[in-house]
Task: inverse folding
């Protein structure tokens, strides 16, 4: 597969990490050669503050503790740090018996752009608009990159971690 | 799975508009014409699909340009769920797709269980399957009622809502609430199945096929219905897959793909049901797929009831005290149970670090949930893949060479729920 | 001397309903006081009777509450008994706006436009928790209570409220009107 940087398997799912420059080639390869003819979802995540909470309990060792063994404090270990701030995940599905799935992951920093896969799967149109609207990930080559869920004159990208939840303060409660 | 080559193609080539796949642009020769009128089918309009806005360019009665504007029901589910712990966050998903509400809970809970690697007792699995199928029937009933209502078959509304109330009675019997029951927990069900549920469920199962017969008698051979649905809103197989369609829209276009059959979750490989597939790709075929799905779902419910009646007294939730509350009686005697109860109620359980994507076959198609966990008591990111969001992307392709009256039929056949489109 | 245990029937009590006799509820009490204080004329009384007897709601279903609002038209809960099954699509023809569902900020402007297009007298029922106060969504995008932009007469709690609960809200609205309480925009002095 062209441009593959890393391949991980977890919980029965395969994640393929590619760089933004080879995304379109990789997706074309996956659609034509590997048979993943449907793009199910584009899910982008903001990892700002990942691992910032720290380990709870009075012992936090790198080896961590098992969640399901007795007498543990719960939190395992500090989560592995992420390479960049944003990850945009393309969940692909092959429409056949067995429904194999794969996840293509691209890591981006603030301000970096990712090319649009609208030429590979037309359904990416609104998903990419949502990634731009909610997280501010710039998509290059998208013919209509406008806000889709928020009003057109909204400022800010709501699903970013530095964007506040908003709403009104409620009496008698602090956090939740 | 692939369509046998002898069947005729629905249309040649592709009808997906260029350059923007989701916007039908007025053709250049009409652009300066005075005959083209831009009309706004605003967010509040009588077709009860919710707050969808369609900006339509009309040349007389035919639609020459179409753009769908969404976001009028954006509720910020995903951001809200990041602030709640895993247990409390389960209350949010049912409001996303508010017609088949327990399916959203199901997909979220399945994602949590996949990250936790938690074994689920079979009673919970079968009950989840039963409730999922009841939700599918509920969603199709409301779809039928509203789609027929918009096309003028007003009396279908009352017939379909009669059965819908029976299903909601069953939900109330099981979980205490008609809608948004929040009955699923990570680990199984939140409570045992109450006595008296199975006889009521059987009554419903016996009643439902006759009800579907009634609906079909009312509109299936009705000349007006046929003229308003046959041959409209055509979608070929390739276009459907390219546009990411799933569920009845895909199966109405001839693609035999159902997640319950292709990649069985819960216990769908142990029940016997048919997956209806029709090949003309029009509004009528999607209607037929949903009617047949109602019958098949009733059969699945009957098989689940058969199986569940033998499971009296079995556990309904997993035994892992790190995730599941201990039974109240234990709290009086066991100190560890008390501590577990305390930790679970105040902080909540912690889900190991990782990311998963789980998909179920909702009434509208593939409902997916992408969950990223940091290892803490709260989700880091939850994203729901909503089938209606993707279905609305196809409106522009479906409305080529159509009249404005067909627009209602076509949008109705996509069975969109704006709650899940806007999340 | 111990009382011989006997059935209530033997003591002369024919039915338990007599035991359960309660006076008017708090709501009815207050309405009664209000009605006496307002002292409406017979003509106004007749007008109010007519307004409450066939109030036509506007189709303003937004989300989950809309499904329960559709359920009150269904045969089991039957709002046609109150003359209200004719949900008008045009706000110009409607008297009652049942805001059913969460109102996003993007939708707030269309909601206000619809409210403005309705002719006086008009009433608003905020159905459900999201319309009354934002519900469980205390965030950047949901309007925390539709009474921030329109004048609400009745709030119906629930998530979603049962059809019977919505009907209770509607019946209370009818009783309010017949008692002579003016619509909410007159009370609050809101530009309508």
Result:
């Amino acid at each position: 597969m062209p441009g593959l940087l890393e391949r991980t398997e977890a919980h029965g799912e395969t994640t393929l990490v590619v760089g933004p420059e080879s995304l379109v080639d990789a997706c074309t390869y996956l659609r034509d050669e590997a048979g993943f003819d449907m793009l199910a979802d584009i899910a982008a995540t903001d990892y700002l503050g990942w691992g910032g909470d720290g380990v709870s309990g009075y012992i936090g060792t790198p080896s961590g503790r098992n969640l399901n063994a007795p007498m543990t404090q719960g939190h395992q270990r500090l989560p592995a740090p992420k390479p960049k701030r944003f990850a945009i995940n393309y969940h692909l599905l092959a429409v056949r018996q067995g429904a194999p799935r794969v996840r293509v992951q691209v890591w981006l920093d603030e301000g970096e752009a990712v090319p649009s896969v609208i030429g590979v799967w037309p359904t990416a149109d609104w998903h990419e608009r949502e990634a731009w609207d909610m997280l501010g990930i710039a998509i290059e080559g998208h013919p209509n990159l406008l806000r889709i869920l928020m009003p057109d004159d909204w400022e800010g990208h709501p699903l970013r971690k530095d964007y506040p939840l908003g709403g009104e303060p409620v009496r008698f409660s602090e956090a939740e | 799975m692939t369509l046998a080559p002898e069947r005729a193609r629905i249309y040649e080539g592709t009808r997906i508009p260029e350059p923007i796949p989701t916007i039908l642009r007025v053709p250049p020769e009409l652009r300066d014409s005075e005959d083209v009128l831009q009309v706004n089918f605003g967010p509040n309009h009588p077709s009860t699909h919710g707050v969808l806005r369609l900006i339509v360019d009309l040349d007389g009665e035919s639609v020459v340009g179409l753009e769908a504007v969404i976001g009028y029901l954006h509720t910020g589910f995903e951001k809200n769920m990041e602030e709640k712990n895993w247990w409390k966050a389960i209350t949010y998903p049912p409001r996303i797709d508010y017609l088949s509400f327990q399916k959203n809970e199901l997909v979220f809970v399945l994602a949590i269980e996949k990250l936790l690697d938690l074994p689920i007792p079979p009673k919970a699995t079968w009950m989840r399957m039963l409730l999922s199928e009841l939700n599918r029937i509920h969603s199709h009933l409301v779809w039928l009622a509203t789609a027929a209502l918009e096309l003028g078959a007003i009396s279908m509304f009352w017939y379909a809502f009669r059965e819908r109330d029976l299903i909601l009675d069953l939900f109330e019997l099981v979980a205490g609430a008609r809608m948004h029951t929040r009955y699923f927990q990570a680990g199984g069900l939140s409570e045992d199945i109450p006595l008296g549920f199975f006889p009521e469920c059987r009554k419903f199962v016996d009643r439902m096929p006759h009800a579907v017969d009634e609906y079909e008698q009312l509109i299936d051979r009705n000349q007006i219905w046929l003229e308003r649905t046959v041959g409209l809103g055509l979608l070929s197989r390739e276009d459907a897959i390219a546009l990411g369609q799933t569920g009845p829209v895909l199966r109405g276009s001839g693609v035999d793909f159902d997640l319950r059959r292709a990649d069985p979750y819960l216990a769908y490989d142990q029940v016997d049901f048919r997956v209806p597939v029709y090949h003309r790709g029009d509004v009528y075929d999607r209607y037929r797929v949903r009617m047949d799905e109602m019958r098949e779902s009733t059969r699945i419910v009957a098989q689940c009831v058969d199986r569940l009646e033998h499971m009296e007294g079995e556990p309904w939730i997993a035994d892992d005290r790190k995730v599941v509350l201990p039974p109240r009686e234990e709290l009086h005697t066991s100190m560890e149970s008390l501590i577990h109860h305390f930790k679970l109620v105040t902080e909540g359980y912690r889900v190991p670090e990782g990311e998963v994507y789980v998909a179920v076959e909702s009434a509208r198609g593939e409902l997916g949930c992408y969950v990223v966990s940091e290892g803490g008591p709260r989700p880091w990111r939850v994203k729901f893949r909503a089938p209606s969001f993707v279905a609305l992307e196809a409106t522009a392709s479906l409305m080529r060479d159509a009249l404005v009256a067909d627009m209602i039929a076509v949008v109705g056949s996509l069975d969109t729920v704006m709650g899940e489109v806007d999340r | 001397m111990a009382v011989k245990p006997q059935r209530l029937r033997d003591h002369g009590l024919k039915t338990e309903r007599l035991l359960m006799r309660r006076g008017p509820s708090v709501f009815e009490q207050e309405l009664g006081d209000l009605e006496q204080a307002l002292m409406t004329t017979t003509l106004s009384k007749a007008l109010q009777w007519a307004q409450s007897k066939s109030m036509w709601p506007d189709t303003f279903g937004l989300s989950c509450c809309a499904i329960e609002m559709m359920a009150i038209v269904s045969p089991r809960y039957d709002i046609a008994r109150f003359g209200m099954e004719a949900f008008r699509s045009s706000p110009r023809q409607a008297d009652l706006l049942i805001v059913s569902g969460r109102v996003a900020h993007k939708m707030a402007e269309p909601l206000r436009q619809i409210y403005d297009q309705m002719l006086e007298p008009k009433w608003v029922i905020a159905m459900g928790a999201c319309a009354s106060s934002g519900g469980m969504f205390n965030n950047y995008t949901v309007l925390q209570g539709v009474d921030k932009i329109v004048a609400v007469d009745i709030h119906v709690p629930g998530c979603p409220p049962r059809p019977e609960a919505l009907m209770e809200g509607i019946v209370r609205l009818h009783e309010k009107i017949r008692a002579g309480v003016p619509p909410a925009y007159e009370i609050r002095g809101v530009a309508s």
Observations:
- Confidence is low (pLDDT under 50) at residues 57-62, 65-75 of chain A.
- Residues 124-135 of chain A form the longest helix (12 residues).
- Chain A has two helices and seven strands.
- The beta strands of chain A are 4-10, 13-18, 38-46, 86-93, 101-108, 113-115, 138-140.
